[in-house]
UniProtKB/TrEMBL annotation:
Organism whose genome encodes this protein: Streptomyces iranensis
Domain of life: Bacteria
Gene Ontology molecular function terms on file: CoA-transferase activity
PANTHER family with a match to the protein in the record: SUCCINATE--HYDROXYMETHYLGLUTARATE COA-TRANSFERASE (PTHR48207)
Protein name, UniProt field: Crotonobetainyl-CoA:carnitine CoA-transferase CaiB-like acyl-CoA transferase
Length: 378
């Protein structure tokens, strides 16, 4: 099958999530990715379990390492460093997320490689940049805390909460992929490689979107609001007779139809609720009105009727329910990848749809590689 990145060679020194996520996306799009791992232990996430699959492999590692080859290199060993340099000088892209300065000590930083490989795209992922924050450890939880995300996540009277997935690492991986592809487009036009710098804190601040602009443009410091939205109402889960119904009413037409389905069309004409701005101002009163009406039926029944009326509504699925929904909608959310022993692993598919060069799925996440053979001098 023709792939978009079929001639691209990527050398992946990255560990854990952000970097491996970026290189997996490139691999899905056809790039040949060689993952460099520590001898004996490999990527940290090989030991991050439970959960494990039926072959006792950590599912965390599996999430971001399909379609890759792997090699075990001890970068503190001169012979392994020489092999790493050889691979880097023949690569189109190098991705690394070591602490700033370490790759320079190994002779594998951008400055030392570009002389022998001027077209190289060199992507460095750090926690807090290469300046004063260079020594700070770049763990997702820490960045969620320092970057303000935890301050807007959770109940108003509760403790700050992290998001239920390492969302900063995922954002950084996506920004890294965008930066790499942009640099490759520039190289196609000019022949010049370049350095791509990604730091987790900047990725989080950019990903805060409207919450960031509330501060930068409006001078407002957002706070925790639980499941409510600072600018839209109703936009939250509400209790029904058997559980929670999520309403995501984004305009006045949707609110009018919501009120009609609930048997309370007069609410749409009430000046307290007639516009979104008014609904946000009177969100407490509106919530009380809606809870009283929703108590008459089950959440799933309301969701079905409201969806027919083009009002965004749904129940709160667990992960199994989410995959089942995607399957029912014909989205084919998973792919099955063969292992060398004849077994297979099922993973979430790449969500990018391309009509001419779709993602490919060549191989399961690789087993832990053996160290390079050592030959004694005779």
């Amino acid at each position: 099958m023709t792939t978009a990145l079929g001639n691209l060679r990527v050398l992946d020194f990255a560990r854990v999530l952000a970097g491996p996520f970026a290189t997996m996306l490139l691999a899905d799009l056809g790039a040949t990715v060689t993952k460099v791992e520590r001898p004996g232990t490999g990527d940290d996430t090989r030991a991050w379990g439970p959960p494990h699959d039926q072959h006792d492999q950590a599912t965390y590692f599996q999430a971001v390492n399909r379609n890759k080859d792997t090699i075990a290199l001890d970068l503190s060993d001169p012979r392994d460093r020489a092999e790493a340099r050889r691979l880097a000088l023949s690569a189109d892209v190098v991705v690394e997320n070591f602490r700033p300065g370490l790759m320079a000590e190994f002779g594998l930083d951008h400055e030392q490689l570009r002389a022998g490989n001027p077209g190289l795209i060199y992507c460095s992922i750090t926690g807090f940049g290469r300046g004063p924050g260079a020594r700070l450890p770049g763990y997702d939880l820490l960045v969620q805390a320092l970057g303000g995300l935890m301050s807007i996540t959770g109940e108003p009277a509760g403790e700050p909460q992290k998001v239920g997935v390492a969302v900063v690492d995922v954002l950084a991986g996506l920004f890294a992929t965008t930066g790499i592809l942009t640099a490759l487009h520039h190289r196609t036009r000019t022949g010049e490689g370049q350095r791509v710098d990604i730091d987790l804190l900047s990725c989080l601040l950019a990903g805060l979107a409207n919450q960031a602009s509330a501060y930068t443009s409006g001078g407002v410091v957002p706070t925790r609001m639980g499941n409510q939205h600072p600018s839209i109402a109703p936009y939250e889960p509400l209790p029904c007779s058997d559980g929670e119904l999520v309403l995501a009413v984004g305009n006045d037409r949707q609110f009018t139809d919501l009120c009609r389905v609930l048997g309370a069309p007069h609410l749409a004409a009430d000046e307290r609720y007639a516009t979104n701005t008014a609904r946000v101002r009177h969100r407490g009163q509106l919530r009380t009105e809606l809870i009283s009406l929703l108590a008459a039926r089950r959440a799933e029944d309301w969701a079905e009727e409201l969806t027919r009326a083009r009002v965004p509504a749904g129940i709160v699925n667990d992960i199994a329910g989410a995959f089942a929904l995607a399957t029912d909608l014909g989205l084919a959310p998973t792919v099955e990848l063969p292992r060398a022993d004849g077994s297979a692993v099922t993973l979430c598919r790449n969500p990018i749809g391309l009509s001419a060069t779709p993602p490919v799925y060549r191989s399961a996440p690789p087993p832990l590689p053996l160290p390079l053979p050592r030959h004694r001098n005779t």
